[in-house]
Design brief:
It is a single chain. By secondary structure, the chain is α+β, with helices and mostly antiparallel strands. 21% of the residues lie in helices and 39% in strands. The chain is built from 5 helices and 17 strands. Strands 1, 5, 8, 9, 10, 11, 12, 13, 14, 15, 16 and 17 form a 12-stranded mixed beta sheet that branches. Strands 2-3-4 form a 3-stranded antiparallel beta sheet, with no helix packed on it. β8 and β9 form a beta hairpin. 27% of the residues are buried. Bound molecules: zinc ion (ZN) (2 copies). One zinc ion is lined by residues 7, 9-10, 12, 25, 27-28, 30.
């Protein structure tokens, strides 16, 4: 089922507009508030279940999608189309953070970021790629968690003092018990197979004051994906993410002891609640020296994650310039640490 968002005043295809936060008609500039947009203007096109080919209602062209795509644009006429059947039932997101960084803004920021990188190869055709950046909603699950942290240990505190000709060392022993309930709210994990976890972790944080009740028109004109991993699949990743915070809290609470001998320690992390949501990113991918690279921007905060590729030519030049002065130092260092000069 393909959804189109028709303009009530001219019948054009509307798309979500970042600057106004509304559905905007590109023909007549009519704006519609997404909260109050009347369902009768949503045109539905049934193509059967589990299809990957849809017919665009606007131009009659064929829209071919990946099985995970929930929103895309028609490659013939450019109008935004949303796959309603892939956003229904248990595939229906509960909430969404709409884009707040516009395409133009994202393009400018990407260009600036690349210019500031030290090793941009001369052959680097990133600028033209940046013209074609993609705005995409990535599926996430966010979790409310309860961690139970307990510790039973023996701690020592040591002091010394002088009395006459003697120095006395006094060791005091303490029974140390800790029992904490820690609550972490809305901890995110991306649920898309395509997105690298490492990159997505770095794109965070998203600010939750912009979380809106999900409505399909937010996706109009953007790319969106459904989840490949559900809340259960992702729970181990969430535990790994939260564990260091709980552990650190516990360590801090016993920081005053000279030694600590554990008798019993446990950190249990449990899910209280989880929610399927969509978060926005701008994405550029490009090939450089036979390798695929990806730059990702948080579509809410503008934070950019990625690595600029190193051009061997430029690295060599740079190293050549400084090597006379620093080569000996580096050699000495690697001698001391047993490291390898790379
Ligand atoms: Zn219109
Ligand atoms: Zn079309």
């Amino acid at each position: 089922m393909l959804l189109h968002y028709k303009c009530p005043s001219c019948g054009g295809n509307m798309a979500f507009d970042v600057d106004t936060g509304t559905l905007l008609c590109p023909n007549c500039h009519h704006e519609e508030n997404i909260e109050t947009y009347n369902d009768e203007y949503i045109e539905q096109n049934f193509d059967g279940e589990d299809t990957v080919e849809y017919r665009c209602d606007n131009c009659g062209g064929t829209v071919i999608t990946d099985a995970d795509t929930t929103a895309t644009s028609c490659s013939f006429c450019g109008s935004g189309v949303v796959m309603g059947d892939r956003l229904a039932g248990k595939l229906a997101p509960v909430k969404i953070i709409p884009f707040t960084v516009s395409k133009t803004e994202a393009q400018e920021q990407f260009k600036k970021w690349c210019k500031n990188g030290r090793f941009i190869p001369n052959s680097f055709k990133l600028n033209s790629r940046i013209e074609n950046i993609t705005g995409m909603y990535v599926p996430y699950f966010i979790y409310d968690l309860h961690s139970k942290v307990t510790l039973d240990a023996v701690g020592t505190k040591v002091s010394s003092y002088r009395k006459g000709d003697y120095i006395y060392t006094e060791t005091k022993f303490y029974q140390v018990s800790r029992d904490f309930d820690l609550f972490y709210n809305k901890v995110p994990a991306d649920a898309s197979e395509k997105m690298q976890d490492e990159i997505m972790n770095k794109v965070e944080p998203y600010h939750y004051e912009d979380l809106k009740i999900f409505k399909t028109p937010y996706l109009a004109g953007y790319l969106a994906e459904k989840y490949n991993y559900d809340a259960k699949d992702l729970f181990n990743r969430i535990k790994t993410k939260v564990f260091p915070f709980a552990d650190n809290y516990l360590r801090k609470s016993v920081a005053g002891y000279a030694t600590l001998t554990n008798k019993d320690e446990s950190i249990q992390i449990q899910e209280k609640n989880s929610m399927y949501v969509l978060f926005p990113i701008w994405i550029v991918s490009y090939d450089y020296e036979d390798q695929k690279h990806t730059l990702v921007m948080n579509g809410q905060t503008g934070k950019i994650v990625g690595k600029t590729p190193l051009s061997i030519g430029k690295v060599a030049l740079w190293l050549g310039g400084i090597s006379a002065a620093s080569f000996t130092i580096i050699k000495i260092f690697s001698g001391i640490s047993g490291g390898v000069w790379w």
